Amino acid sequence: MTIAPKAPRRLTMKQRYEALTRDLDWEPSYVERSDVFPHTEFEGIKIHDWSKWEDPFRLTVDSYTKYQAEKDKRLYAVLDGFAQSQGHLSLTEASYLNAMKLFIQGVTPLEYAAHRNFAYLARHLDGPGPRFAALCQSIDEMRHTQTEIHTLSNYNKYYGGFHNYLEQYDRVWYLSVPKSFFDDALSAGPFEFLIAIGFSFEYLLTNLLFVPFMSGASFNGDLPTMTFGFSAQSDESRHMTLGLEAIKFLLEQDEANVPIVQAWIDKWFWRGYRVTALVAQMLDYMLPRKVMSWKEAFELYFEEQMLGGLFQDLAFYGIRPPMHVDDAIAEKEILSHQVYWTLYQFSHAAAFTTTVPDAGAQKWLSENYTETFDQLYKPLWDKEAKNIEAGGRHFARGLPQLCQVCQVPMLFTEPGDPTTLCQRESVYNGEKFQTCSDGCQWIFEREPEKYVQAWLPVHQIYQGNCGGPTVPDVLTWYGIQDGDGGEYKGSVDDRNWQKWHDAADHSNIGSEG
């Protein structure tokens, strides 16, 4: 009798993960380890045992690619169906797409930037576990870039503002806010980047960034963006968990890491919070159908879940809540109004449109911001409505002073006084620099040699580096076309929207039964 040889035993998922990561690592024999991984020492972080890194997901290449391929199939089926059925006509209103224009102009390029630096970490982190985790996230970020572009490309056939987002990301004034955030992170060391993106951006602020966009898409008839959001959400959850794992790993390796990590949390919380100012106004002003107010989202996702949960756990390691968090909490009543009022005045130089909130929207704002809207911001809109009746829609013709750190125009007010603009001044090498808040001033004065190099759009215009001295010159250099920005009512998008819906044949509605 011939006994058949036993089939090789199949490895479990955990064993395959171990083989892919730990078993592919080796100790260099003819060069020093510090020569192989030179970038993980200069920040002062001490790592004693890289094997202590725990990847909570333990993905393998085959399971990762299979899972992502299944998600892509579902997403692209939805995109095809939406495009073939003229689904864009089922949106609540064309003005809703201003939120998606901001998304592709300001968020999609960040995904690509994250892809680049996680690929760098996949090479330069010492430990095999974090290297593979960084590799997976790098691929995720590239996939998100591609799927976001494909998701929103359908709208580019019919609406303005989508056609030149990559060039605009490098040039346009309001997009320097997210760009400067990521450039700051990309030019930091590997561990600071992990805290900046993996922890502060992915863990602390992702819910404030993604949930409003995706929930708003769902509530306003944007099925492709909603589906993309679901497709990306499982990745984002993994990124958030990895971000938390990264910070715990650093804190557990050496007590000397705690003050370094705390300073990074203080810095990157405020940097990320200032980026979400663009999201705040989108949530309160750009969605025809409102999902939740910025104030409500901030209280739920940040105050309750982050301050009330995460930072209670991190206190065990000696980590306290971020510096200047009280200023952020105090701003939740006023942030979105101040930002949208500024964008409204400068939208003639933007690749999205703005308009005065109608009576229903102002009623909603009044109900959700009982302590501030009627007293401080409704009078502005009432006055603007009179200007428009008199034929004088207001656009600011000057150039705003920008914050040297976050690059948001100096529109924020003093803590506790929403009627006085906040402006802080620092001197470095005999030159004066302006910042918008105590948080940005603290960041500037901590690393002035870095922020004095900031590429500030307004300064570049004055220096003659943006196509010419006139507004049309600069808009041409930005790649902004007629119909991309300005007032929404009467715009190309608005006129087309009215024409397409007026031309639709509704005569059979109600007669099907």
From TrEMBL:
YHS domain span: 413-455
Keyword Signal on entry: no
InterPro entries: Ferritin-like_SF (IPR009078), Phenol_Hydrox (IPR003430), RNR-like (IPR012348), YHS_dom (IPR007029)
Record field: transmembrane: none
Catalytic activity: propane + NADH + O2 + H(+) = propan-2-ol + NAD(+) + H2O
EC number of this enzyme: 1.14.13.227
Keyword tags: Monooxygenase, Oxidoreductase
Protein name: propane 2-monooxygenase
GO MF terms, alphabetically ordered: monooxygenase activity
Gene3D superfamilies per the UniProt record, alphabetical: Ribonucleotide Reductase, subunit A
Pfam family, any one: YHS
